[in-house]
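Example record for the data management plan.
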Amino acid sequence: MPRIRCITEMGMGVDVHGRDATKAAKRAVSDAIRHSSLGFVRMLGKTPHDMFVDVTIGVPNPEGVDTSAVAKELPYGTVTVKAVKGGLEIPAESGSDAILIANAAVIVSLDDGK
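Corresponding structural encoding:
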């Protein structure tokens, strides 16, 4: 089924202590969707549950992202999450900790009905 991309949102999330990629990723997704309300979906005769939500998370350690936990940040739709190399890690002055920054791209699509 062909999809039509309707919305692309970007967000950033940070774990200040602990290098927790999942925590930073969840915050990035929350940041991306926090200011969105997708009322147009009803105008197209669809419900929020008809949406396909594809999330890409960029973090320095993509293997450290619990994609299932990140997916739970999205309240509607069929959600897929993948983690890729990206983001930033800023070492602490002491070298014992770091700030981990995750970036999220959240893409919402609908079936074009064809």
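Summary line stored alongside the record: The mean pLDDT is 93.
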